[in-house]
Amino acid sequence: MERTVWPTLVLYGVAALAEIGGCFAFWAWVRLGRSALWLVPAVASLCLFAWLLTRAQADFAGRAYAAYGGVYVGASLVWLWLVEGTRPDRWDAAGGLLCLAGAVLILAGPRTG
C-alpha cells in the first residue's frame, strides 16, 4: 500500500469521529431528550468533520467522499461497540471490513490519465 494512503485513512478516521460525534449529539437532543445545548458541540463537531475532509489527499471531492464512506462505516461500528455498548455481530464486522477494503482500493488503486 502506498505511503500516502495511511495518513489519509487516519485523517478519515478522525473525520468520522467528528461526524459521528456531531450526529450523535443531535440524536441525543432529538431522540434522547437532552438539552438544546447539545447542538453547540454538534455543530462544532460537524464543522470540524467538513473541514477535515478538505484536507484529504485526493484530486476529486467525489473520490475523497467515496473512500471516506468506507472508513465512516467502520468507525460507526466501533462507535456502536464502544459508546453504545452493543457489540457488532459477524455480519456487521464482515460488512465493515468490506467497506474498509473498498476505501483502500479507491485510495490506492492505480490511476490512468
Overview of the structural elements:
This protein has 113 residues and is mainly alpha-helical. The protein has one domain (5-108). The protein is built from four helices and no strands. The protein has helices at 5-31, 39-54, 61-82, 90-108. α3 runs antiparallel to α4. The longest helix is centred in the N-terminal third of the chain and has 27 residues, at 5-31. It is flat and about 50 Å long. The two termini are 20 Å apart. The relative contact order is 0.16. The model has no long low-confidence stretch (mean pLDDT 93).
How many structurally independent domains? 1
* Biggest sheet record: none
Task: State Rg.
Answer: 15 Å
Task: Please report which band the strand proportion falls in: under 5%, 5-15%, 15-25%, 25-35%, 35-45% or over 45%.
Answer: under 5%
- How many DSSP E strands? 0
Q: Portion of residues in helices?
A: over 70%
Identify the notable features of this structure and list them briefly.
113 residues, mainly alpha, 4 helices, 0% strand, flat, transmembrane helix, cell membrane, UPF0060, transmembrane
Please specify the SSE layout and strand pairing.
Blueprint: H1 5-31, H2 39-54, H3 61-82, H4 90-108
Helix pairs in contact: 1-2, 1-3, 3-4
Brief description of this entry?
This protein is an all-alpha fold and 113 residues long. The chain contains four helices and no strands. The radius of gyration is 15 Å and the shape is flat.
